[in-house]
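Q: Sequence in, structure out?
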Amino acid sequence: MNSGPDTRYTPGRPKTPFPLVRHLSVHVTPLLVRTPISANQVTTLSMLFGLGCSWMVLQGVWALDVVGGAMLVMCYILDNCDGEIARIKGQSTPFGMRYDSFVDFIVHVSFFASLGIGVAESTGQEMWFWMGWAAAAGGTINYAIGFYIDARSRKELEDKGVRDPTGRMAAEQPKMPVKFYEWVIYTFRELTRADFCFIVLGLALLDQTWILLPTGAIGSQIYWGALFIRGANEYHV
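A: Exactly. Output:
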């Protein structure tokens, strides 16, 4: 019988400097867990902040870019909180994990597409529009490949007799890189992604968010390409 959330719960402080966003979410989770809000509702709230960010950068106005950057930080904080809340309240489900991944996909694809449109409108240069959509396309490919890899991993666990692959995968400790190239993959694929919101906010304050378009257009292709490197998806935070 579920007796409700453990309101005494306090998330452990991150043992490493990265990701930076966890140093913020660790203070938010104890507040949310005291409310009736569910893990999936937190994920939905995260998506709304993320889509709100996309709408802001779509306008091509500096002040709104800054507001959008702040909204993306909130999106990332909530994205870190939903998993902890799911475990505390016993709400971890395969749907919840897939929904969380889908929201991450929607937020980032809409962000790059909107940023491309916004910068193109403000500068009158069409190339930014296409860079934004190139980044969005790369993000879509990455999501599709990641979905396939995740489904295959779950199938392998089920074939081994693991009755709850979702709980098993969530409980497993991440494998840390050892070799130099593994550290490069780890840094590029995880640390940058985990704290991307701070990069956006920093560039927005400097009125330099356009930098994200060429780097996103190229980097997103490298990102999904890295998924084919053996073991690359094992290094995460």
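DSSP finds nine helices and no strands in the chain.
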